[in-house]
TrEMBL record:
This is Zinc-type alcohol dehydrogenase-like protein. NCBIfam families: adh_fam_1. Residues 19-338 form the Enoyl reductase (ER) domain. It comes from Paenibacillus montaniterrae. The lineage of its organism: Bacteria, Bacillati, Bacillota, Bacilli, Bacillales. SMART domains: PKS_ER.
Length: 341
């Protein structure tokens, strides 16, 4: 039996606890069906990592492996694979119902894997999949935003939490299809980051949206992408959304939302969860393969760029604990990636 290094947990503990993430030796997984066995080169960290890891009573008998952003090299392919071959460089977010990518080798269904952008190194590529799928699905699938520049000429998108991981790629995708992008950011460094990535304007999310929008010359916005505290921004979103506009959020809420606030405007509210397709094995699961490939082309032609902002090494429990604690501040700008075993 061959083994591999991995980082995982048995107990759900605060990140400053030395056992919150552990260095492990596990059996190397075997490939079957439509799975690829990937040799992991770099992993991105996302809020989903610390949300899954957050303290609770539960104890795992088999170690729980986190990590849903991987760039690596295909080592083996299952008998039913048609999209990739050993040696292919890939990037993907994986499937939350399966073991995560914080391990030397990782199994993933090829239908949710993309060809790694050739112009990027593994760390730059690992920054992208989860946030890219989230932003792409939110804009084009959930809110049905057109891909035609002419259609979007006078249309506006407000991104709440524009300097974070999803916001950093959402700004770029929205600008690519011709939208006017207004991002929320509250610190000089996050405002600067959002503007560098293409945001046309920024507002402060600690103040009312509508007066700030009016100062910029907008009465309302056509689309809102909420990437932070849905209930906290609900009233501001209800006021700012245009009649027949669309709001998409990715952040679960602890309290019921007063949906009636959207009724007179016939406004749409929709969730985006990038694990839905893999979790329910939907018929259109392969759309994630296609969109990752499409975005790889945009990265390679220079029309968008990686959102990597911080690189840590190597991939071990200590480094991942540091990455989690940086994310848990809620102040991370762009993406944090951990590379190399």
């Amino acid at each position: 039996m061959s083994t591999m290094k991995a980082v995982g947990l048995y107990r759900y503990l605060p990140i400053d606890h030395p056992e919150s993430l552990l260095d492990l030796q596990l059996e190397k997984p075997r490939v079957t069906g439509r799975d690829l066995l990937v040799r992991v080169k770099a992993v991105g960290v996302n809020p989903v990592d610390y949300k899954v890891r957050s303290p609770k009573e539960k104890v795992e008998h088999a170690p729980k492996i986190l990590g849903w952003d991987v760039a690596g090299v295909v080592e083996q392919v299952g008998a039913d694979c048609t999209l990739f071959q050993p040696g292919d460089e890939v990037y993907y977010a994986g499937d939350i119902t399966r073991s995560g990518g914080n391990s030397e080798f990782h199994l993933v269904d090829e239908r949710i894997v993309g060809k790694k952008p050739a112009s990027l190194n593994f760390a730059q590529a690992a920054a992208l999949p989860l946030t890219t799928i989230t932003a792409y699905e939110a804009l084009f699938d959930r809110m049905g935003i057109s891909r035609e520049h002419e259609v979007n000429e006078n249309r506006t998108l407000l991104i709440i939490g524009a300097a974070g991981g999803v916001g950093s790629i959402a700004i770029q995708l929205a600008k690519k299809v011709g939208l006017t992008v207004i991002g929320t950011a509250s610190r000089p460094e996050s405002i600067e980051w959002a503007k560098e990535l293409g945001a046309d304007h920024t507002l402060n999310h600690y103040e009312e949206f509508v007066p700030q929008l009016q100062q910029l010359g907008f009465e309302s916005v056509d689309y809102i992408l909420c990437l932070n505290a849905t209930e906290k921004h609900w009233e501001n979103m209800a006021q700012a959304i245009a009649p027949q506009g669309k709001i998409c959020s990715i952040v679960e809420t602890e309290v019921p939302l007063p949906l009636t606030r959207l009724k007179n405007k016939s406004a749409t509210f929709v969730w985006e969860f990038m694990f839905t397709r893999s979790m329910f094995q939907t018929e259109d699961m392969i759309e994630q393969h296609k969109l990752l490939n499409e975005v790889a082309e945009w990265l390679d032609d220079g029309s968008i760029k990686t959102t990597l902002n911080q690189r840590l090494a190597p991939i071990n429990a200590e480094t991942l604990r540091k990455a989690h604690s940086l994310l848990e501040t809620g102040k991370a700008i762009g993406k944090i990636v951990v590379e190399g075993f």
